Amino acid sequence: MNTIHSLLLVAVMLAIIAMAILHAMPRRRHPVTIRFRKFRVRSFSLIERLALPFIRAFNRLEPRMPGRFFGNRIALANALGLTFSKGEESLIVDTGVSLPVTTRFIVWQRGADAYHAAIADGTHFPLGPSPDAPYQAGDILSVQRLGAVIGTTLGVAGGAIAVDNLVCVAKDSTGRILDLTTAGGGTWYVIGRAASAATAANQEVTYISCLPYTVAQ
Fold first, then answer.
1. Where in 83-173 does DSSP place strands (E)?
2. Is the pTM of this model over 0.70?
3. Domain range spanning residue 134?
4. Do 45 and 97 fall within a single domain?
5. Each residue of 51-95: pLDDT tens digit?
6. Cα–Cα distance for residue pair 95/89, rounded to 1 Å
């Protein structure tokens, strides 16, 4: 704490020195404005110049300060939901999901609200597969959004799948995928095209994902 207080004192002293120097400098009636394409660039105002030493000092001190000064940083559900990075969305496992989930890369859908995910049942809009296998209620999983991720996507086959055929979400609430040509009659959510083949159920299969759309056959 003594080190932190000393650094704060130094920052205040530097700010006072900066104020004195700026006060002694000749003042312009109007800040210089430079036109750069569509933007107008001007020099710092007096208040902005006075604030700079404090901003720089606190930026350096922040990683070393205890939580009571800057607050504990926790990730809340409403901050995690709808947060995308490289096509992935972080969601909380829905309370209706049977846990633990032992299979990875199954397809998930939206749960009770925008911040929860449930295993895809084939009748609701699918979000995408997840490399995670949630163990308990409240776990957070990363969902690879269909049509947003780059490259091929892994999935779990619900039956035999031929390479290059369209794949859809199975309607048995397992999050597995099926070959559309052998899925049978009805309305299906197509999620991509197979990049590898599967000869039986529960085998891993790669596919090129797309934005989900429905097909009636």
1. 84-85, 88-93, 107-110, 116-119, 126-129, 140-144, 153-156, 166-169
2. no
3. 77-217
4. no
5. 767 666 666 655 555 544 444 444 444 444 455 667 889 899 999
6. 18
CB atoms within 10 A of CB 204: 13
Residue 168 and residue 189: Cα distance in Å, rounded?
5
Same domain assignment for residues 112 and 194: yes
Q: Residue 73: what residue type? A: R
Residues 161, 203: Cα–Cα separation, whole Å? 10
Residues 6 or more apart from 100 whose CB is under 8 A from it? 133, 134, 135, 136
Q: What is the C-alpha separation between 103 and 177, in angstroms, rounded?
A: 13
- Which residues on neighbouring strands pair with residue 209, listed in sequence order? 192
Alpha-carbon radius of gyration of the chain: 28
Whole-number Cα distances in Å, 27 to 21, 30, 31, 52, 116? 12, 9, 9, 18, 57
CB-count burial class (<10 Å; 0-12, 13-18, 19+) for 20: exposed
- Amino acid (1-letter code) at residue 86: K
Q: What is the pLDDT of residue 16?
A: 73
Alpha-carbon distance values, 54 to 15, 46, 90, 124 (Å): 7, 14, 35, 52
Any idea what DSSP says for residue 199?
S
Low-confidence ranges of the chain (pLDDT < 50): 30-39, 67-81
Q: Enter the tokens of residue 52.
A: 């700079």
> 137 and 199 in one domain?
yes
